[in-house]
Amino acid sequence: MKPRPRNRYRNSLGLSTITAILIVVASLALVGLGIVVSKNRVRALGEEQRKVEAEMRLLNAEILALNNRIETMLTRDRVQPRLTSAGTLLRPITKQSILLLKPLPEQPAKAAAPAADPSVAQITSKAP
């Protein structure tokens, strides 16, 4: 009879080598996962920023439209009938209703001071 062949341990890698390989693969997987998560977070922030910018553009357009609407509502042709119907006493300005004032003549500073405050003039005249 022939002796039975024995099963030999054929794995040439030791336990420490397998452990080191597993640690390296796990750390590379974690680094890759971190990079993917980081890029997704940056992309999400970019999308949020684009949405906010689009909303700002819409709000600016709405503000401009409201300003234009206010300007068209406050034109003379629209305000005048409203003021008249409200019973205000406003009248159109004409050249005859404008008053023009003549400029005052300039007075010397010494002559203007005693006339402005007579109590100061009395005190200075009584001094020895």
TrEMBL record:
The chain crosses the membrane at residues 12-37. Residues 42-76 form a coiled coil. Keywords: Coiled coil, Membrane, Transmembrane, Transmembrane helix. It comes from the Bacteria. Residues 109-128 are annotated as: Disordered. This is Cell division protein FtsL.
